[in-house]
Amino acid sequence: MLQGGFSEVLKSRNRDEFAGELVGFTRRLGFETVSATLVIDHMLGEPEFIIVDNTPREYKEAFRNPKNGRRDPVMQHCKRQSVPIIWDQATYVRSGLGDKWEEQARFGISNGICLALHLPEGRHFLLGVDRDKPVPCDAAELTRIVADLQLFAVHAQDAASRILMPAPTDPALPSLTPRELESLRWTMEGKTAWEVGNVLGITERTAALHVNNATHKLGCVNKHQAVLKALRLGLLR
Asked: pTM for this one?
C-alpha cells in the first residue's frame, strides 16, 4: 500500500491543491494522467460534470466533451457499475471504437484503470488513471494498485464534494439532516415510505418521520410539494 496521499487529499483547501494531490498520488501509483469527475444528476435536465484532470492540453477539449462519454466504453461501464475496470486497446476494439483508442493513445492515454462511486442525492464520483504502457501483468501487483486507487477514491470524493460543490451557506435555507435529504431524494424517485426504509435500512415509520420533518422544515403541506421546493432551493439535484 502506498504511504501518504490517502488522507493528504482531505487537507486540500482549493481546486489547485486538490489537483496537485491527484497528480502526485497518480504518479506514485505508476501512472501519468488522472481525471476526477464529480457528476451531479439533475431531474429536469442534463447531468452536470465537474472535472479536475491533467489531460494533455491538445486533447483536453475532446476529452471533456460530453458526447465523448456517451460512447466511451470505460465511461459507460462506470455509469452502470462500481467495480473498477482495467482497460486497454481491446476494450475499445470490442465496442467498435478502435479509432477512438488510437486518437487518445497519441496523447499517452492508452491503458488505465477507472472506477466510480455512486453516492446519495444523485451524485457520482469517477476516478481514472492512465498511462502509455500496459498495466502490470502480475496479479498481486495489480490487485495492490486497484486497492490503493479504491481507497484513495473514497478520500478524494469527500474532498471533491467539499471543494467543487460546496454546501449552501445561505442562512435562509432550511437545514435538513442527511437522512431527511436522503429520504426526500428517494421520495422524489417515487418510492413509498416502506421502500425508502428498505433502501436506507430503517423502519417504514422512521422513513416517514424523516420525510415529515423535511416537509415541515420546508414549510410545505405534503411530501410532493416538499420535493419540488427542495429542488427549487438546490437542496436536491
From this structure: 0.71
Domains of the chain: 8-164 (3.30.450.80), 178-233 (1.10.10.10)
Distance, in Å, from the CA atom of 216 to the CA atom of 28, rounded to the nearest integer, reads: 50
Show contacts of 42-47: CB within 8 Å, 24+ apart.
42/122, 42/237, 43/122, 43/188, 43/231, 43/236, 43/237, 44/231
Task: Give me 230's grid cell.
Answer: 427542495
pLDDT per residue of the chain (237 residues) written in tens, 0 to 9: 555 557 889 899 999 999 999 999 999 999 999 999 999 886 556 788 999 999 999 999 988 887 887 889 999 999 888 899 999 999 999 999 999 999 999 999 999 999 999 987 778 999 999 999 999 999 999 999 999 999 999 999 999 988 987 555 555 677 888 889 889 989 988 899 999 988 888 999 999 999 999 999 988 889 988 988 888 888 886
